[in-house]
Each structure stands twice: as C-alpha cells, then as structure tokens.
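Narrative of activities, Objective 1.

The group set out to show that a structural description can be obtained from nothing but a protein's sequence at a throughput compatible with the screening campaign. Below is one input-output pair from the validation batch, recorded exactly as produced.
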Amino acid sequence: MRVEGHDLGGLDQQGRAALRRTSLGYVFQGFNLIPALTAAENVALPRELDGVPARRARGEARRALEEVGIGDLADRFPDDMSGGQQQRVAIARAVVGERRLILADEPTGALDTETGRRSCGCCAPAATPGRPACS
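Output recorded for this entry:
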C-alpha cells in the first residue's frame, strides 16, 4: 500500500509513525480529546508534535475551529462543550495542517445533518493535491 508516494511495507516503524503523524488525520468515534487542554490546544497538539512552532500551530488550530463553525469555543475545555461541539473539535484536529488522508469513524454521529455537512466540508480540500486540509 502506498500513501503520499511512500510504500508502507518499505518503511520502518519510525517512518510509518512519521507518515501517520504528518499525512493522516483521525476522527475517533469517542473524540479522544484531552480534558486538560482547551479546544485550540487539542487541535494544535498534532501540529506541535510535527515540530510546528506553538504560535503557528495555535493559529492553524483557530482557523480549523473557525472552519467547522466553533471558533468562538477555542478557549473552552472539552467538559464545557456539548457532544456535537466536541465532535467538531475532533474534526478540526483531524484536518489541521496539511493532512492528506482523513480516517473517520462516524465523524458526524453527534451532529445534526446541516452541521455535519458544513463540518465535513473542510475535509474535501484534503483530497486536492497541493491544498491544505482547511484553508
């Protein structure tokens, strides 16, 4: 199997981990948000782990949260949000940066139809070569 031009079978464990971290986004059914981090911090975390400076990662996170319609919740903690809001934080985290492949397990299960459509609309650019996942 090839992802982003890389043969997964030819990569060592460290190479596969780096590829997962930089090219793949995940939306987990259980959200997997860190309760002690704000929405913006949860979204920025993967970018910071990629080596992106914190200030830039937080800016990208805020833009991704705006894209899914909850920019006003950037400084809230997960326990202070509804399930649908937490779901949108998880979607923002999956698409922040230049993720090219989004793996999602019922990404709109906690959202109404229109909010789900709007929230997942930012996933489409991830499939377009040369475009960031959320712009």
